[in-house]
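Second attempt. The first submission of SLC26A/SulP transporter domain-containing protein had a stray character pasted in from the spreadsheet, which I only caught after the job came back as garbage. Lesson logged: always re-copy from the clean sequence file. Corrected sequence (404 aa) follows.
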Amino acid sequence: QSPVTDKRTLQATQRKVGSWVPILGWLPQYSLRENAFGDLFSGLSVASLHLPQGMAYAPLAALPAVYGLYTSFFPVLIYTIFCTSRHISIGTFSVVSMMVGSVTVRLAPDQNFLVNGTNGTTVNSAARDSARVQIACSLALLTGIFQILLGIVRFGFVVTYLSQPLIRAYTTASACQVASSQLKYLFGVSIARYSGPLSLIYTVVDVCRMLPKTRVVELVVVLIALAVLIGTKSINNHFKDKMIVPIPIELILVILATVITHYAGLIDKYGVTVVGAIPSGFRAPVIPDASYFPSIAGDAFSLAIVSYTINIALAKTFALKHGYKVDNNQEMIAVGLSNGIGSFFFCFNVSSSLARSLVQDSTGCKTQVVWLVTFACTILLNLDIGLAAAVGFSLFVYIIRSQL
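This time the job returned cleanly.
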């Protein structure tokens, strides 16, 4: 072959490898002078959010808090290597964590781990948590496999049918779902954990029924924390042009609350519920248990679609804002690898963080009727079924508009 042919072959190979491993394309051209300072402070800021969010979202998945920290580390590294988006923060996310929690609680409920002791019947929490971790890791692996396969067969075209009202309504309804799951902690009451259709309604009714048993100290702690969070975020927004980085209030609040809880004796004097000890370091990787696959296949596929939907919606928003393109199918593969490889390191399912403004309207639907249908379906039918129903309705509207 001639030198020209060899050069073209090399360039074609580089482009092919770069399409599968995007970091090989942009990292050699990275400008330290232009980007390093901003990236450093941005990374520190995002890292300060990962810590409290990881500990907060792990209980939504019915897992100990430390597994949220694992999930905030390993998948981030994998996604950085294989993604095409420059601004997505992958890791724990409330909606996805709740979907994982519905599976772990269903397959490993408390009643399966009851033991009789001198103080009566109690739950063997160590055995229960161990089983739920195995289920969550298996779920993440199977979800990752589904996403990788969908990316390979070019399933990313489905994002074309996700309208802006659909995404925004799903975001709003998801926030309501997450808020309802936190009500028992706000009032310090114990209620059953519900999953499936109408779970939000059952949760709110149970909390209202238990209001006379509200633990005042825990309610005061929550209200103070909310006031500090909202007030500081207002300050961040107001002075964002004058700040190098926003105040990492979530991390600061976790540190202060830990110190105050310990030295003020809130646990012994008032029985305030705490996260507990957090192990240091990482655990050696373990192959997830594939025997769970038959019982979690449907849930894994739902999670594959939901987490990808959230991820690509936000990725396209930032890509449009900053003038670059993202590859729909490569993003599917990147999230799949993050889930799949992360599962070996005791990570549960991941997705990107949501923002109020998401993707541009891809179907042309501008009416509020798409928004209302999506919101109602997600509130009443739960997150996975609600998304499926909303996408079905969006497709129906798209077909009708096209025919007319």
